[in-house]
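Dear all,

This email documents one entry for the complex benchmark we are building for the journal club exercise. For each entry we list the sequence lines for every component of the assembly. Then comes the predicted three-dimensional structure of the complex as a token string, followed by one or two observations. Please use this as the template for your own entries, and keep the labels exactly as they appear.
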Amino acid sequence: MKKEFICIVCPRGCHVSVGEDMNITGNQCPRGKTYVENEMTAPTRILTTTVRTIFEDQPRISCKTDNPIPKELIFEAMKVINHIVVDREISIGDILIENILNTNVNIIATKPSRKKE
Amino acid sequence: MKDVIVIGGGAGGLAAAIETHQSGKDVLLIEREEFLGGILNQCIHNGFGLEVFKEEYTGPEYADQFIESFLEEKIDYLLDTTVIGLRKENDVFFVKTSNEKNGIQFFRAKAVVVSTGSYERTRGQISIPGDRPYGVITAGSAQRYLNIDGLLVGKKVFILGSGDIGLIMARRMKLEGAEVLGVAEIMPHSNGLTRNIVQCLNDFDIPLYLSHTVTEIIGDDNHRLSKIKVSKVDELFKPIEGTEKTFEVDTLLLSIGLIPDVTILDDLEVEIDQRTKSVKVNQAYETNIEGLFVCGNALQVHDLVDNVTLESQRAGQAVNRLLDKGKGDLSRSISLSPGHNLGYVTPQRIDLDFKQEFITLSFRSSKKMEKATCKVFQNDELIFEKKLFFVLPAEMETIQLPFDKIKSDGNISVELEVKS
């Protein structure tokens, strides 16, 4: 089956097709080929979201995966992240969940707790 | 009296404040929210900082880089404080502020930097017919509710407008369990960055309806949104009969554009550019009022925060220069305007006595062009050109115009051409 991709490596946004024999057409540079090969075989994404806290003045703290995770695990990862509650002061980069879904990827904070004056 | 007052503590204000403070100026920054960092705080997605830091940060991480240096500099600042008046008398600016604890206060300064960002266009600005129920909200407001306050505004969502915030919110609400039924864009092309179309819509099988718009909003008996009607439009943006679809939704997000927020300048006689919907500035981001500078999204809506930072640093350097060297004779100036295929260009004026090696011109194309050349004409004579690989209205471009190419009189026009 023919598959269509839009390459997002640069603003040109080439429409790249992959034919049944896996030949890649439509990319105007080699980076487009690499992009589509990854998308065909093992697409991954950085997941960014928030976690609950116990702090009244900052009910959510933003977080992300410290490395890309397989695209198909995104919703499962959201379930795990939405289960935890931050109850301590944290800094950017602190690990909130270690090795989520056995991916060897951690969920880390992308915002510090608000400094108390 | 302060040397500089910076209004707004987002990406632009932080950069301008740091730049001026590092050159020894006495600076006060005023922020209306209870925290620094501005809109970056709610932009929790990644993709920030590729230009400035050569790294991919989320919005809060990008902001933190600047908040940390700002705090290290020990610059004076006020949070939770709104500027409610700004005027100038005898070379001194008077900034009137309001704060719950301190009441009304006045601060004086020799120079003011306005980095107040932009606001979102609302339903009223595009006149969608129908009821006026709850559940119609701008994408940026929904983003704040969700990412700062932890409140999901709806469970069945449709999005009008393919601006980046709308696309980012389509993904974000989907991740949090909402059903996102589609995005309608009145233009035949998307207004958002391609990577957002791919990673926010295509990844989650959210349909994008190009050349479509919302033609009716329908509320239920409790004044809550229950349905919207969406139609295809013709080249004149008129709905085509027989193409109507009905979507049952509880939320309609609007992502229909940003407008620079310079309402704070209403009491000053600043010159307005109808194209950017903001003030006209010279190459130092100074308005026609001496000592009054505008930068960041308050000057022109940017796609990338990196460009806001760089622009605001340049504005800060210009403030330093004004305060250190005085104004000089700035009576000799020429005007700059957008020509063929350009939506707008900043600055709108070049002061010839304010010399610098290069002038940064920022502009947007009015259509998608491949292998375009940016040409700068003065009195119909080509004084500079630069090849651009690929231009899109959704992506702002900048070029560096060498100052020594500019002649002492004759207005400048900037154009885009495709070599045939």
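Observations: The mean pLDDT of chain B is 94. Chain B touches chain A at residues 34-35, 41, 44-46, 56-61, 64, 146-150, 172, 175-176, 193-195, 197-199, 202-203, 370, 389-390, 392, 395 (CB under 8 Å).
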